[in-house]
Design a protein that fits this description.
about 475 residues; alpha/beta; seven-stranded mixed β-sheet; 19 helices; 16 strands; binds pyridoxal-5'-phosphate
Length: about 475
């Protein structure tokens, strides 16, 4: 049996066996807790890494270091891979960081139905089967002025369902300026093809007129489709047919108009100094027959795809087999209902986190950033408050920023500091600008300050 104290020329010979490593006290406890199989896997990974890393016996890690490494690998395996992080990037709807954080009421509603049974599809008054969609349909109709509403897994699913149910085998007319890629490979032309609908492109990349739609309409036309160019902006010599004119044309020709808004806001973004983002209510008021939008972009709720509009069309969607494949679960519906109730109560700006972040005044950001900087300076870090900008993100309002105050950390290796922050507990995701690491208080949730400052302090020590 090899011994860690034995000097041998081949470093592989100086490594202990799996069994011997597992007998180390650090791992013996882990074996008792997590079972032997995972511990063996961790020990094997440690020994394999040591075999490739140590070029000579003199460099071979000590027995204790090997045990520590295996224990760390085992802890990583058993803690799962999805956990909360602190978003200090200033990007409010950060798709990679899970988009919209939920309101307290939404979290509670979600937990309450997740933990036990609920009246998800049960009509308590009648004592018989009910519909899961009723919990949000009435609310959505009241908030948007729609006749009917349906909720599916996400907005990509909503668009797909609309096309499959209303246009398979027929023509969908869309402007060339709106054949967009949303991100993550979601390209409107591909989605159209997959749904079985035929794409009829009209106009040009920068200019499409009502006439272009008029000329394309024929007996095979199922829909006129408008897609909001969420994540990019066209400037210069550009024009698109206004929705109201498309609606008039659609009515004349008996062809429904579908408006995919992407973000789709229920609040007026211009009240916060931002350019206007299309509002769901306005689109319906202008006569769109169906409007689709996301639950977790500017609505600030859970991941979902919301479809609002005419009852006759929504009924066709409800009865399509894809509706079942795309259906939402009880915790999503609970969170969505609670989010919508904030809008109904007129308290969205205060209760829905993304709106609270958008609405945070500059002096509040300055105060919080100054408190962080003072605390970090007191711990010996090079921190100061600087003017910067926050972004909306999530493919909403591209290029639009909100003025903010951030804490800038001057560190010899800002990338190493950022990596140390990401590796911390809790992980912190920050931004680097002009060679400094920036922490934007706008997207750091209330109550996260202490954890953030602690994590920054630790990362700074490790990075120096
Ligand atoms: C974001 C977006 C989608 C996809 O919505 P998800 O909720 O992410 O599935 C579809 N269309 C537009 C215009 C979008 O901006």
């Amino acid at each position: 049996m090899p011994d860690e104290s034995t000097q041998v020329t081949d470093p592989r010979r100086s490594l202990p066996s799996v069994d011997r490593l597992l007998a180390h006290e650090l791992l013996a406890a882990a074996v008792a807790e997590h079972g032997r199989d995972l511990a063996v896997e961790a020990a094997r990974a440690t020994l394999a890494a040591a075999r490739t890393a140590a070029p000579s016996a003199a460099d071979a890690p000590t027995f204790a270091a090997l045990a520590e490494d295996a224990a760390r690998r085992l802890a990583e395996m058993t803690r799962g891979t999805l956990y909360p992080v602190i978003n200090a990037t200033g990007v409010i709807i950060h798709t990679n960081l899970g988009r919209a954080p939920l309101s307290t009421a939404s979290q509670r509603a979600m937990t309450a139905v997740a933990a036990g049974y609920s009246n998800l599809e049960y009509d308590l008054a009648a004592g018989e089967r009910g519909s899961r969609y009723l919990h949000v349909e009435t609310l959505l109709c009241r908030l948007t002025g729609a006749e009917a509403a349906l909720v599916v897994n996400n907005n990509a699913g909503a668009v797909f369902l609309v096309l499959a149910a209303l246009a398979a085998g027929r023509d969908v007319v869309i402007s060339r300026g709106q054949l967009v890629e949303i991100g993550g490979g979601f390209r409107i032309p591909d989605v159209l093809r997959q749904s079985g609908a035929r794409l009829v492109e009209v106009g040009t990349t920068n200019r499409t007129r009502l006439r272009d739609f008029q000329e394309a309409i024929g007996p095979a036309t199922a829909l006129l489709l408008r897609v909001h160019s969420s994540n990019f902006r066209q400037i210069g010599f550009t024009s698109e047919a206004p929705l109201s004119e498309m609606v008039a044309l659609g009515r004349e020709s008996g062809v429904p108009v579908v408006d995919d808004l992407g973000s789709g806001s229920l609040l007026d973004t211009t009240r916060y100094g931002l350019v206007p983002e299309p509002m769901v209510q306005s689109s319906l008021a202008a006569g769109a027959d169906l409007v689709t939008f996301s639950g977790d972009k500017l609505l600030g709720g859970p991941q979902a795809g919301l479809i609002v509009g005419r009852e006759a069309l929504v009924a066709k969607l409800r009865h399509h087999p894809l509706a079942r494949a795309l259906r939402v679960d009880k915790s999503t519906l609970a969170a969505l209902q609670a989010t919508l109730l904030h809008y109904l109560a007129g308290e969205a700006e205060r209760e829905v986190p993304i709106w609270r972040m958008i609405a945070t005044p500059l002096d509040a950001l300055q105060t919080r950033a100054a408190a962080w900087a003072a605390e970090l300076c007191a711990r010996g870090l090079a921190a100061e408050v600087v003017p910067s900008t926050s972004a909306i993100g999530g493919g909403s309002l591209p290029g639009e920023t909100l003025p903010t105050r951030a804490v800038a950390l001057s560190h010899p290796a800002p990338d190493a500091l950022a990596a140390a922050l990401r590796a911390g507990e809790p992980p912190v995701v920050a931004r680097i600008a002009d060679g400094r690491l920036l922490l934007d208080p706008r997207t750091v949730q209330p109550g996260e300050d202490e954890a953030l400052l602690g994590a920054v302090g630790k990362a700074w020590e490790r990075g120096n």
